[in-house]
Amino acid sequence: MLARRTLARVGSQPSVLGAAPTNARNMATLRELELRLKSVRNIEKITKSMKMIASTKLAKAQRAMTQGKEYGAANAELFQNAPTETPAKRKLFIVVSSDKGLCGGVHSSVSKATRRVFAEQQEIDPESPITIIGDKSKAQLSRALPKNVALTFNQIGRDVPTFADAAGVADLIIKSGVKYDSITIVYNKFISAISYEAATLEVLTENALKESPGFKAYEMEDDFTKDLSEFALANAIYAALVEGHACEISARRNAMDNASKNASDMINSLQLQYNRGRQAAITNELVDIITGASAL
Amino acid sequence: MSSATWRAHFTFNRYSQICARALRQSLKESERVKAEKRGLTALRYQHWENGQGGEQVYLVPPEETEKPKGSAAV
């Protein structure tokens, strides 16, 4: 009960308890402040080093992103010239995020975008399947839309994603036998080193391509159309993966930067408090000694 | 074009990954080391039924290393 008294109350109720306990309480608070100061200093070191690591990784990730986006651009060219007549009822959502945290709002931005699309229903089948890449979004979406989750992947995103990852994901989706009319990839679009936003990429299935009038103008063998749709899916997934990876690294850098700034602000204010407390304790002791000496 | 019998067994993506692997293994030593990194994948996946996740499976099982993990079991 005594320990519960805050510093303010100790100040406003003077000397009922005598000098020694007050001193003891101040020393206890000083000890606490010291511990707190030490731990905040450690945290500042950690967040600073994480920020350094993220900054060095960002350059590599951005280079990979500009190269990877070419794959997505090739897809976009194709689908622009072969649009579908009928809007898709049952869409497959591929949510691109990653396994690691401490990167700001990257995972929740993608999860929220997916939930928004489901909430706005209009023509989307409420049983549309969702596949999730990344444990963080998996945790969020498996709580929000548990019936729709069909397939999840992890262990992508430790290093820059490779086309092998994207091809593996595409193959598993195709082999899993999930039914869909078209595919929507939800990922984070890299706007600048300090901002990103959730965006979607549409990919047509083999049947949709075959039906499209722009495609029917050419005679294509079925085999090649199937190959093209599979490869287009892998391309689109790869483009989304690298861009999402770059967004995650830049978000982590910004988050750790903010954390370091907050930590150094806290260190400053804690240091001032500590000094004030130390000087108050010294002054009290001096007063005790002097009153004691003058009483003799 | 000869009848492509691979289509019965796997997708075009798998076909291109196999060809890419063959190409990477045929490169000169220095280039090969750089290119091998582009073919790495540690992907794991799990199927979900009714809100319950299944078992996590490695797409490419990691190689067994010599050193066994430390264990108290005798």
From TrEMBL, chain A:
Its main location: mitochondrion. It is a peripheral membrane protein. This is ATP synthase subunit gamma. F-type ATPases have 2 components, CF(1) - the catalytic core - and CF(0) - the membrane proton channel. CF(1) and CF(0) have multiple subunits. It comes from Gloeophyllum trabeum (strain ATCC 11539 / FP-39264 / Madison 617). One of its GO terms (cellular component) is mitochondrial inner membrane. Belongs to the ATPase gamma chain family. InterPro entries: ATP_synth_F1_ATPase_gsu (IPR035968), ATP_synth_F1_gsu (IPR000131), ATP_synth_F1_gsu_CS (IPR023632). PANTHER family: ATP SYNTHASE GAMMA CHAIN, ATP SYNTHASE SUBUNIT GAMMA, MITOCHONDRIAL.
Automatic annotation (TrEMBL), chain B:
It comes from the Eukaryota. GO terms for molecular function: proton-transporting ATP synthase activity, rotational mechanism. It holds the Pfam family ATP-synt_Eps. GO terms for cellular component: mitochondrial inner membrane; proton-transporting ATP synthase complex. InterPro entries: ATP_synth_F1_esu_mt, ATP_synth_F1_esu_sf_mt. This is Mitochondrial ATP synthase epsilon chain domain-containing protein. GO terms for biological process: proton motive force-driven mitochondrial ATP synthesis. Belongs to the eukaryotic ATPase epsilon family.
